[in-house]
Amino acid sequence: MNSTPTVLTTNAIDQSEVFRVDVTGPRSAAAQGQKPITTARPTVAKQATGEVTHPVKIRTKNVDFFYGDNQVLFDVSLDIPEKSVTAFIGPSGCGKSTFLRMLNRMNDIIDGTRHTGDVLLEGSDVYDSSVDVVLLRKRVGMVFQKSTPFPKSIFDNIAYGPKVAGLRNKAKLNEIVETSLKRAALWDEVKDRLNSSAMALSGGQQQRLCIARTLATDPDVILMDEPASALDPASTARVEDLIFELKKNYTIVIVTHNMQQAARVSQRTAFFFQGVLVETGDTRALFTNPTEKQTEDYITGRFG
Amino acid sequence: MSDQQIEYAAILKRRHRISTCFEWVCRIATGSALLFLAVLLAGVIWQAWGWLDTQFLTGFDSRRPGKAGLLAGLWGTSWLIFFTAIFTVPMGVGAAVYLEEYATDNRFTRLIKLNLSNLAGVPSIVYGMLGVTAFVRMFGMISAADGWTLAVSLGIGTLEIPLPLGRCLLAGSFTLSLLILPVVIIASQEALRAVPPSIRHASYALGATEWQTIRHQVLPAAVPGIATGIILALSRAMGETAPLIVVGAMSYVAFAPGNLDTPMAAVQDPQRVLDAPFDVFTSITIQITNWIEQPKEEFQNLAAAGSLVLLILLVIFNATAIVIRNRAQKKISW
To answer: What ipTM did this prediction achieve?
Structure first.
């Protein structure tokens, strides 16, 4: 599970800052009480303790965000490591979803929003005027809270991303649909009815379809906005297992209201409160030994 | 039973009585509406009985009631609605897509939206006046006396466009288009608004452009609503009389626009098709109005027969719309 060494893909990453993230598994009891380590450290592919170092994939610096005159994010600086799961937790309206939607510029769709600060994907600003937002969203895919299958066939749902990007080759499309569905652990359930409507799938299947659809565009990063909050426990478990599998190849950022879920699936957790990033660190450390009072109050259920 | 329970029981009876009363008020309202409709239909059919025959459908108007027919009106209305649809659909749907999907919400777009609702309520005769000024006279930029003809040579014949347009069929269609455009835009806007935003977001998140999102997700989902709006608006245009009178439809014409009186003639002599839009015209509604004004008793029967034809056409029109809508809806089930 943790044997693959992390490959540094780009020199745009500041090599001096590297995360050490526990990848021993969501349900493993190892490494309890570990402190987050964010100090400068040379890149090492694999360490004896079962930790793999992860370069920074997304870095935000001093991000403020406004809906009109209403400021919803205050000076958020956060590093998101590559090929691991980062969870955003916090009470409703704390700005975690807004922050998530900044990472692939989905907030652009809403009129009257603006921001200050930088959002760097592999070192380059996603809000730079030279960035094509269509290309950005292909690289940084998104799965929403409510599953949103298009009223089309299962095949057409998966093939939509590659098709709008210009892929016409039928054989290639077939291949992408099959791989994506397999990666999303949905292939066996739907392989005999690819041409029937996606709306006929169950809620859990629809959400995995949406994940498969995102995978089909071949992204680096997958943003998930409460992907399991509308699902029953069994479907939630399947989606969580899927997230755990996917982090081997993708950088995943997940917003969740469910703290157990954050603890189960993520390696790093960021706690937001009233638009401020209160605390961030290794998930286990944050949950067992938070440094901030507000974090402790929230995870122990004293509010939110 | 406590006092409170006794009081409750007493009031309960009254509550049930009021409920029953209201049900009957609604029944009477529905019933009387149906009754009026039935009486109206029966009256029209009674008057039209024996007059709605092949002669009526294939003959032109005549001073003698026995020989008078609706053919000029049938062709006129068909052409009018055909051109009205051609102008209205792209303009109306395009404007709605722009307003809903592209335009940002600012004072200017809000002003446009507000005025659309106002325009939808403007009496049709006002549009008739506008049509005369804008299309028939073309704001007097070219005086009718020294008007000239723009000839465009096409493979199948010559398109002769008179400038100013004058009292031609195309001017009538332009006027009807103006009349129903606000209705089409508003109906299309509502259909577009009914498409869940989550579908758009999902499409954008997969790296689709705005056009791809509109083309592949939004429009297919909005087609049933847009189609309904267009059909209702065109039905209204079909029944209009006042603006056509103002624009200068002929009350008595004994030929079809462009002399095109059978579909076969279009194949045999394509030039007639090119002439039709610029010819003088009449419509079913104008013919009905004309007949009602005639002193001879038999013309009243002809008017009834004409009304019946118009009603049948409208029913066919709306039925087609419902079929199209249901087909489109079947493909999209949320």
So the answer is: 0.79
